[in-house]
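in:
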């Protein structure tokens, strides 16, 4: 896949051209994202959840560019939320769309390397999953846990002598907890995405050159 500058007008014209083939690929990736993020996630206790839902969004960005990646990430988030009977949170939907945009911006028509994969996931993890998601969850009132029951044992051991057993944990501890989660899952996500991108690279040109 030839590298092309994002500052070139042809790059954006090509990304905005939504052919029937592209729309079909987008539909398949959206369905995969909903399945992987809501059905096949692995819960390691109450604290850590490993999800494969980011992979279809990243593949959409790699194959379709920033515009296609944004549409797939936003569409799968909205549809998945509706299918589970929940209300759409505009902030979280925008965050999901921004993640798809970053995947496209950093991976589309770029060589697959471990350093590029690490940089891409670092941006998405820090900006989208940690900063924006934490902010919008706080606005919705979902960051505080009444007794810290879903925190790792070493965090509970550190803070409970200060705040007491069963006490509501302060907001900064919730933020630190979310940061630790991102640090733990980051290398796992890098390995999974790198393997997936290298697998997609080996597919026929009809798939990789949409």
């Amino acid at each position: 896949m030839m590298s092309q500058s994002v500052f070139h007008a042809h790059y954006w014209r090509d990304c905005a051209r939504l052919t029937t083939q592209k729309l079909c690929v987008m539909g398949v990736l959206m369905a995969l994202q909903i399945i992987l993020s809501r059905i096949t996630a692995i819960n390691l206790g109450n604290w850590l959840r490993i999800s494969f839902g980011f992979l279809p969004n990243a593949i959409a960005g790699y194959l379709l560019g920033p515009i296609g990646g944004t549409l797939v990430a936003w569409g799968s988030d909205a549809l998945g939320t509706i299918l589970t009977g929940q209300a759409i949170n505009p902030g979280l939907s925008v965050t999901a769309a921004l993640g798809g945009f970053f995947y496209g911006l950093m991976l589309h028509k770029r060589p697959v390397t471990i350093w590029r994969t690490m940089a891409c996931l670092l941006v998405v993890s820090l900006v989208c999953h940690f900063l924006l998601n934490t902010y919008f969850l706080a606005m919705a009132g979902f960051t505080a846990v009444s007794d810290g029951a879903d925190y790792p044992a070493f965090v509970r051991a550190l803070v409970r002598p200060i705040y007491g057993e069963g006490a509501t944990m302060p907001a900064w501890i919730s933020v630190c907890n979310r940061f630790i989660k991102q640090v733990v899952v980051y290398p796992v996500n890098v390995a999974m995405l790198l393997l997936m991108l290298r697998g997609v690279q080996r597919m026929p040109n009809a798939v990789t050159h949409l």
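note: The chain has a mean pLDDT of 80.
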